[in-house]
Write a structure and sequence with these properties.
By secondary structure, this protein is α/β, with parallel strands linked by helices. The protein contains seven helices and 14 strands. The longest helix has 14 residues. InterPro entries: Metallo-B-lactamas, Mito_Persulfide_Diox, POD-like_MBL-fold, RibonucZ/Hydroxyglut_hydro.
């Protein structure tokens, strides 16, 4: 299996290329509008990009899912979760919780992890040639190294009202039901790093693990105590302003 991170320092945003080297098939997750880097990377490794997807509707950069799919003939996959108001407006295969994308010996499993946005998906990656269970989680704007995706951007950037409280409750449930159900060894690869306004305390390290966050994250004691209200209060306190280009 090949897993590479492509990072935009200006946006503090990460995309990922996942591939089975035996089959030569690759998936790109959360591509930016300028798709040249993905094409170059696939060419360098002798891979075919056969699938493109994204974790959620992005407020802070222009997605390149349609452009990359059109340029490569890949299948575009987007979230089918979140209800009618959160369906994408372009033709693509819809992913629901538990759906999979197969790349040779590599299995990518979609998990619905709402909170940052209602339709948000995270992707578990299993290299079946090496292990029978997932070893990686592409967490998008769900879990970062040292923090969580903010649930208030729909209010602040999209002009909606009071969605942050429901988003915070959804985030609590996503942590409890999905994230904390994973083994400690699972590596977590988030969609943003330090400098992003998507949260106030993002770490500068590019990844974390389920076990590290379970032990040391600010939110872990709230989950351990099943303290939803304390979690919500802490999550919504002291958030940074969204940049003017969010929306």
């Amino acid at each position: 299996m090949l897993l590479e991170r492509l990072y935009d320092e200006d946006l503090s945003q990460a995309s990922y290329l996942v591939a089975c080297q035996d089959s030569g098939e690759a998936l790109v997750v959360d591509p930016r509008r300028d798709i040249a880097d993905y094409l170059d990377l696939a060419r360098h490794h002798g891979l075919r990009i056969v699938a493109v997807t994204e974790t959620h509707v992005h407020a802070d950069f222009l997605s390149g899912t349609r452009e990359l799919a059109a340029a490569t003939g890949a299948t575009a996959y987007v979230s089918g979760e979140g209800g009618e108001d959160w369906q994408y407006d372009f033709p693509a295969e819809r992913l629901h919780d538990g759906d999979t994308i197969e790349l040779g010996a590599v299995t990518i499993t979609a998990r619905h992890t709402p909170g940052h946005t209602p339709e948000h998906l995270s992707f578990l990656i299993t290299d079946t040639a090496f292990a029978p269970s997932p070893g990686y989680l592409l967490s998008g704007d769900f879990v970062f190294a040292g923090d969580l995706g903010r649930p208030d951007l729909l209010d602040e950037a999209a002009g909606m009202q009071d969605t942050r409280f429901e988003g915070a409750r959804q985030l609590f449930a996503s942590l409890r039901d999905v994230f904390l159900s994973l083994p400690d060894h699972v590596q977590v690869l988030p969609g943003h790093g330090a400098g992003s306004a998507c949260r106030k305390a993002l770490g500068a390290v590019p990844s974390t693990t389920v076990g590290y966050e379970r032990s040391f994250a600010w939110w872990a004691p709230h989950l351990a105590a099943d303290d939803e209200q304390g979690f919500i209060d802490a999550l919504l306190d002291g958030k940074p302003d969204a940049h003017a280009y969010f929306g």
